[in-house]
User: Which sequence fits this backbone?
């Protein structure tokens, strides 16, 4: 028998918010370098540098990158800034302003300086450097997170990152690229400064990739920076665009202990890799990995005819949540509105399991909505579809949306039986709620009201009971 633990809603909320790209401009530089000679505070060079930094700062409210030159031959100063390609103007300006203050404080007399921030880079020099690929470089590894857990995982990571890096030189003007993968879990970013040519950018990134091989590739997160280009890899989303995260709606991960057998983790790794990649294109995939007695069974499915990129995104979230929340289970089920992921060390393919959990929205408890035939209709429809998935929209005072689905390893009769059972459960748990989800291991039904206008209806006068909404005729085509 499975035991389900219903977690409070805000647990998931906190979980998913911490994973989002947070729009906070880091106040600390990740590094800086002061070099060259010393200039004196009242010199012409000092005045020129001041002008340069002011000009760059003011340009950063209109542009993500800019270069500028101030002064005559003897006291000339060259400077540029660039913000990361996913950063908006406002954040760019804030980052450059912070860098300028910091570079003045940290390199008070230097004729050459660079400050690297998460979101931007600021550099000046008394030597012409535009278009040059040179200068100091450094790397960070996420030593806290340790090494990648699986043999050969760094090869997958490096192949993936190299593929993304190849796109960068031709992406003018920002020469910036990001990419993410669900398995292994990869979020990666690379960028060249805009002053480089295609060849310069390619040269810089090639050099960096070679360095990464030796310093960093085995680690669970790293970044490598030079004045002209940088490459970063993490196992969590850290750039804008990686943010959309599907919200975990329910999970089954009993604390039944992962076997100490190291094969379990290796097989699980390979299984999830397979499931997320295959299911993303076909919407459904199931597979068995391992040898007797260490078999692992896995199934991944996306809702109805979800687009591959959304399917993939949802499964990326699932794998991420798995790492966070289900580290000690042999039998796991995760439910999302857009996808479903399950694995177990026991076979479950084709076995109908109507155990489930439900979540209800308590807002508008007084909605005395009865849906006698709608749930049967949507359940019936789902069991007859090839994708084992159906939607039903009923337009009346409210827009009522129903969705029913079975895992696609079941046959039509099993699906129907699973859903019919759920309709009975729904009566006791969820009937009068504005929205609810009933999630069973093999099937699920959801219901949601969306108001025709975006407004919540005016509260009814006190003492007058809310009339049940009339059932109205079903819309055409249903
Ligand atoms: C992320 O990108 C979107 C769309 O380009 C933009 O509207 C938003 O401001 C960006 N967020 C941050 C934190 O840069
Ligand atoms: C900006 O850099 C380019 C080379 O990339 C250089 O030709 C140009 O003169 C620079 N502009 C300024 C204002 O320094
Ligand atoms: C910077 O200049 C000041 C004043 O000219 C001097 O006291 C200080 O030692 C210099 N610092 C460096 C790092 O050159
Ligand atoms: C700073 O840059 C200079 C010039 O490229 C280099 O010689 C020096 O080693 C760098 N310092 C650090 C701490 O990286
Ligand atoms: C639904 O399943 C539960 C548990 O398997 C069972 O006790 C119940 O009688 C079933 N209800 C219907 C209507 O099939």
Assistant:
């Amino acid at each position: 028998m499975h035991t389900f633990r219903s977690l409070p809603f805000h647990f998931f909320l906190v979980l998913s918010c911490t994973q989002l790209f947070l729009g906070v401009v880091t106040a600390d530089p990740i590094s800086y370098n002061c070099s060259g000679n010393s200039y004196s505070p009242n010199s012409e060079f000092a005045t020129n540098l001041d002008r340069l930094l002011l000009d760059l700062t003011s340009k950063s409210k209109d542009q993500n990158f800019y270069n500028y030159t101030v002064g005559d031959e003897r006291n000339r100063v060259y400077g540029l800034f660039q913000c990361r390609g996913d950063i908006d103007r406002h954040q760019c300006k804030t980052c450059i302003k912070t860098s300028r203050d910091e570079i003045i404080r940290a390199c008070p007399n230097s004729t050459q300086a660079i400050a690297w921030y998460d979101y931007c880079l600021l550099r000046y020099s008394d030597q012409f450097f535009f278009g040059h690929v040179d200068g100091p470089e450094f790397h960070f590894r996420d030593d806290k997170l340790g090494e990648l857990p699986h043999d050969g995982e760094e090869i997958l990571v490096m192949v993936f990152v190299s593929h993304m890096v190849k796109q960068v030189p031709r992406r003018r003007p920002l020469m910036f690229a990001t990419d993410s993968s669900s398995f292994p879990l990869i979020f990666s970013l690379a960028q060249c400064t805009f002053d480089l040519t295609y060849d310069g950018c390619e040269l810089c990134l090639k050099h960096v990739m070679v360095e990464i091989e030796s310093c960093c590739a085995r680690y669970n997160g790293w970044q490598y920076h030079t004045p002209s280009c940088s490459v970063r890899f993490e196992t969590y989303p850290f750039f804008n665009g990686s943010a959309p995260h599907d919200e975990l709606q329910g999970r089954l991960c009993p604390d039944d202990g992962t076997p100490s057998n190291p094969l379990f983790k290796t097989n699980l790794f390979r299984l999830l890799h397979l499931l997320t990649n295959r299911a993303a294109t076909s919407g459904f995939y199931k597979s068995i990995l391992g040898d007797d007695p260490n078999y692992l069974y896995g199934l991944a499915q996306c809702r109805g005819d979800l687009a591959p990129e959304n399917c993939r995104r949802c499964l990326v979230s699932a794998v991420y949540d798995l790492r966070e929340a289900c580290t000690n289970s042999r039998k796991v089920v995760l439910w999302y509105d857009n996808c479903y992921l399950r694995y177990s060390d026991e076979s479950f393919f084709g076995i109908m399991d109507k155990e489930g959990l439900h979540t209800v929205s308590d807002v508008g408890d007084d909605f005395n909505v009865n849906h006698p035939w709608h749930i049967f209709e949507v359940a019936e429809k789902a069991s007859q579809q090839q994708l084992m998935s159906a939607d039903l929209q009923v337009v009346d005072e409210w827009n009522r949306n129903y969705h029913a689905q079975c895992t696609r390893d079941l046959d039509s009769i099993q699906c129907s039986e699973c859903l019919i059972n759920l309709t009975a459960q729904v009566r006791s748990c969820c009937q009068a709620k504005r929205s609810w989800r009933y999630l069973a291991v093999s099937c699920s039904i959801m219901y949601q009201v969306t108001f025709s206008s975006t407004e919540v209806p005016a509260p009814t006068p006190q003492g007058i009971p809310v009339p049940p909404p009339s059932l109205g005729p079903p819309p055409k085509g249903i």
Observations:
- Residues 1-26, 451-478 have pLDDT under 50 and may be disordered.
